[in-house]
Amino acid sequence: MRIAVVGVQGDVEEHVLATKAAMKKLGIDGEVIATRRSGVVAKSDGVIIPGGESTTISRLIFRDSIADEILEVANQGKPVMGTCAGLILLSKCGDELVERTNTKLLKLLDAKIKRNAFGRQRESFQVPLHFKGIGEIEAVFIRAPVIVEVGKDVDVLATFEDYIVAAKQNNILGLAFHPELTEDTRVHEYFLKMSEI
């Protein structure tokens, strides 16, 4: 199995390490590649779009044809996971901040998102969440977006307060939090298992 982590910006290395650890726990032979250039994502069995700054990531992936490869992989039914900024990019619809910054979205997840729902970086926090199919996990939120609306084909996996913070639509997994920043690899294991379906 080959998993590509889009490495243009954000917490890339943490996702690489968490995915490798999850592969080891599941007994999967494979490699995890952080990439900044086109050609790698297209040859992968799954893709992770990390957190970071969504406008910057969007500009770079569309400029360098990585966005086209993510869409191609998704259309082949391979799993794509986006965390924090990655969730914003996967979503079909953004808020006025997304529009004002001309952030181009991949539109793979039938969801409307709100950026920076809990405030700025200093309002970061960690809470226990119930994640459908996994159980209780610790979730780290950093300048997190949230999902305010989903289409009928979207499965809500976790909520916090009145917001949806994890959702899945077929092979697309969007998370408002950062599973790569804890020692728990179960969310990455969940993602890897999606490629076996």
Structural account:
With 197 residues, this protein is α/β, with parallel strands linked by helices. It has a single domain, classed as 3-Layer(aba) Sandwich (Rossmann fold). Helices cover 28% and strands 32% of the residues. It has six helices and twelve strands. The chain has helices spanning 12-26, 54-63, 66-75, 85-90, 96-100, 186-194; strands at 2-6, 31-35, 46-49, 80-83, 91-93, 109-114, 125-131, 135-141, 146-150, 155-160, 163-169, 172-175. The strands form three sheets. It has a seven-stranded mixed sheet, with helices on both faces. Helix 5 links the parallel strand 5 (91-93) and strand 6. The longest helix is centred in the first third of the chain and has 15 residues, at 12-26. The protein is globular. The two termini are 14 Å apart. The mean pLDDT is 93.
Inertia-based shape? globular
Tell me the strand percentage band: 25-35%
Largest sheet data: 7 strands, mixed
- Structure summary, number of beta strands: 12
Summarize the amount of helix as a percent range: 25-40%
Whole-number mean pLDDT: 93
Strand order of the largest sheet: 2-1-3-4-12-11-10
Mind telling me which CATH architecture this is?
3-Layer(aba) Sandwich
Radius of gyration: 15 Å
Distance between the termini: 14 Å
Which regions contain 5 or more consecutive residues with pLDDT less than 50? none
Tally of individual helices: 6
**CATH top level class name:** Alpha Beta
What name goes with the CATH superfamily?
A: Class I glutamine amidotransferase (GATase) domain
Q: What fold name goes in the CATH topology slot? A: Rossmann fold
Q: Please identify the structural class as seen in this structure.
A: alpha/beta
Order of helices and strands: EHEEHHEHEHEEEEEEEH
- The figure for the number of domains is 1
